[in-house]
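Appendix B. One record, verbatim.
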Amino acid sequence: MRKSIFLERKTFVFSPESIGKVDGIRVLERGHGYSTWIDFSLPMAEWVAGVFYEAIIGNKKIDRWTEREGPFSFLAEIKANAGGEFLRISRFGGAGIARTFCLCIPAGEKNFCWWAFGDTGIARTLATPDNEEWPKFVIRIKQGVYEEIFRIPLRKKNVVFLGDGMGKTVITGSLNVGQPGLSTYNTATVGVLGDGFMARDLTFENTAGPDAHQAVAFRSDSDQSIIENCEFLGNQDTLYARALRQLYNQCRIEGNVDFIFGNSAAVFQNSIILIRPRQLSPEHGETNTVTAHGRTDPAQSTGFVFQNCLINGTNEYMKLYYQNPKVHKNYLGRPWKEFSRTLFIDCYLGDLITPQGWMPWDRDFALSTLYYGELGNSGLGANLSARVPWSSQIPKEYTKAYSLRNFIQADEWISSSS
């Protein structure tokens, strides 16, 4: 049975000078820096989503400090006594001030772990806070397959999902619009509203079959969101980049019909985007579209920008494609809304992309108001000689408008300490 997971606030306050006990969880601070340690000595009966488990965690202490660059910086690594469990501490303040505590529980009988944040050694929560004051709230998701429907509401800001790698940490569901009462919006396996969401090293999946129509793996309304080295697997409507500013870097996205869609200002960099078989009998042919952007007003600063990405098919799909290329039609996108905007810059477009490149939504709808542009692409699918007349070749001098800095103001919110 699938569980619907909603992050709710559970607050625990510990004094930095003394031992605090709450629900059998004991936190002990001994000074700062290398001498800081945490002792979980009693059975635990609570975790970040409010689901109850029991786990006896042995004493652990700091084993070594490590430095890492980039938006995810973990400065301490703790080894466990036994059982494959471990603890990490991350610092966001000055030297020697442990400000974040993380307990990681192995996948299987137990699910997510939690990070408890603190300020100068004060741990104040063991579940996602209403996160205005904390720099990050990290949920460390160990290797395993998690059948969860996960929702992060608007008030939960700066939540970070950190897994063990694409295909290793998998969050999966199968909701789809064929089920009573479900809209496309509500089919998402993971849905995020809180700003500042970040994720790395995991897979978001919707296993609804190719005949299930809309079935979202990941939906985001999170402003200033960064997704890195993550995988999105589905068929129709895999990735719903619904609103606000989002960055996807070194990701892998699979689907077939409009499988990257929404009305966000989203940049996709260095990513692999693959078309997978659509129908139950795909050898008979189909029509697939990579994108369906939904800008509804010319004043909206939204659009999809793909930079240095690879657009091709899965191995399974390419075997079908080469058997009879004429019956398989694959397009870069079609206009979901009147002012749809999508650009491919310096990408590799495989030979499965049709010479026309872009597909109408319904006759001439939006053809005079959309903006579909290409520049500097390579591959057999990048030949522009037969492109539809309502698409554009981007003048090189205009590409600066679609840089990270100008398009999503990345210089204001993406840094090594993000």
